[in-house]
Write a structure and sequence with these properties.
Blueprint lengths: L29 E5 L11 H9 L4 E3 L1 E4 L5 E3 L22 E5 L2 E5 L7 H4 L27 H15 L4 E2 L2 E2 L2 H6 L5 H12 L9 E3 L2 H8 L6 E5 L6 H5 L6 H4 L2 H7 L5 E5 H4 L14 H7 L3 E7 L22 H10 L4 E4 L2 H26 L1
Parallel strand pairs: 1-2, 1-13, 2-7, 3-8, 9-10, 10-11, 11-12, 12-13
Antiparallel strand pairs: 3-4, 5-6
Helix pairs in contact: 1-3, 3-5, 12-13
């Protein structure tokens, strides 16, 4: 505990070692720091990303939203009242409003109502204070970072540690932001190309829940794209278009083959790979990973966290929701099922679990070699 791919088909091949490149017969899954090391620092801050890299993450994941003047910044959603101190700022009290975001009524303060200059006067706060009280000690210390600042940080830390560190941005709520005149696909691609040009072959994935967003991105860049898949519901753009398909349809053989025409990977909710147990049934693994691999897609699973609140009952320790359970066992479970990467709030847990997974694989290879000889 911290205390202080497969190539895309055709001309869109991934120009750097992918997460399914192997040494001998062992895979090398990637560790994706979900919003940074958000188990230890308030999410989507430069401090969270910097710590994630120090803990061994292969990628850091910023969720991207635009300011009123079109600057991409890292926040989990358009509403910023839960993750900044804006609610305590009297000068912005009149900005509180109600909006319909992707069909859901939301009241608060919205990033698109602030210029970057105004946003710079705000400071990040822990989004889950009831679960992560230790992170509250960092409230008010860190600014909201821009995508450009994150990319500069990643490049600097890559050089510092002598290893490539990737970025894995999510284009958040693209239909919603397009409806208010702030389409994000072009600015995201421009920023990534501008920075990756400084470090050829820099590892990058771009993700979204909306297929139409990913198709537009595919027309703008050869960077590998990731179709996010939730456990329930449907992509917002399909709902708006009157398409009756939901996320469950995207992970059928037909749906996965369609995804492979515009993306190189799927990012799936962990419940789609190992459903949670119920009174009636045990949580047995599905065939989603094998089906996706058969369609030529990588599989990255989200989101693994150490606290009891997020763990299956058999891996919890103690009775407090915020107490850390046997999270490494959950990480290893997914690695054993052949996923190509994991999103995690605790990169150190994932790195240790991957090392243990590798060690077991090496022992199996050694034993198998001895038997053959």
């Amino acid at each position: 505990m911290y205390t202080d791919t497969l190539p895309r088909r055709g001309p869109r091949a991934i120009p750097y070692p992918c997460s399914r490149c192997v040494t001998g017969l062992t895979r090398d899954p990637v560790v994706i720091a979900h919003r940074g090391a958000s188990g230890y620092r308030p999410e989507h801050t430069l401090a969270a990303y910097r710590l994630a890299i120090a803990l061994g993450a292969d990628y850091v994941e910023p969720d991207l939203v635009p300011t009123r003047d079109g600057v991409l910044v890292a926040r989990h959603e358009p509403e910023i009242g839960a993750t900044t101190d804006v609610a305590r700022r009297a000068e912005f009290a009149h900005r509180r409003t109600a909006k319909l975001v992707d069909g859901r009524a939301v009241t608060g303060w919205f990033v698109e109502d602030f210029t970057l200059g105004e946003l710079r006067t705000l400071y990040a706060r822990e989004r889950l204070p009831w679960l992560r009280p230790g992170n509250r000690g960092y409230d008010g210390q860190f600014a909201v970072p821009t995508l450009d600042e994150i990319l500069v940080l990643v490049r600097h830390e890559s050089r510092r540690y002598g290893r490539p560190v990737g970025v894995y941005p999510e284009v958040k709520n693209p239909s919603y932001f397009a409806s208010v005149g702030l389409a994000m696909e072009g600015p995201v691609v421009a920023a990534l190309h501008r920075h990756t040009a400084l470090q050829p072959g820099a590892p990058v994935y771009v993700q979204s829940f909306e297929p139409s967003c990913l198709r537009r991105l595919a027309g703008l860049t050869s960077l590998p794209l990731v179709q996010l898949v939730g456990a329930v519901g449907a992509p917002r753009d399909l709902v708006v278009a009157g398409d009756r398909r939901g996320y469950s349809d995207l992970v059928t053989p037909l749906g996965l083959r369609e995804i492979s025409t515009y993306a190189g990977a799927i990012g799936v909710h962990k419940d789609l790979v190992v459903p949670p147990p119920t009174v009636e049934r045990v949580g047995r693994p599905t065939t989603v990973v094998d089906r996706a691999h058969s369609a030529g897609l990588l599989v990255h699973v989200w989101t693994l966290r150490d606290e009891n609140h997020f763990l299956p009952p058999e891996l919890r320790m103690g009775t407090k929701p915020g107490q850390r359970g046997r999270a490494a066992a959950e990480h290893r479970r997914f690695l054993d099922l052949g996923v190509d990467g994991v999103f995690t709030d605790f990169p150190d847990t994932a790195v240790a679990a991957r090392a243990a997974h590798r060690a077991v694989g090496r022992r199996r290879l050694t034993i198998a070699g001895a038997v053959r000889s």
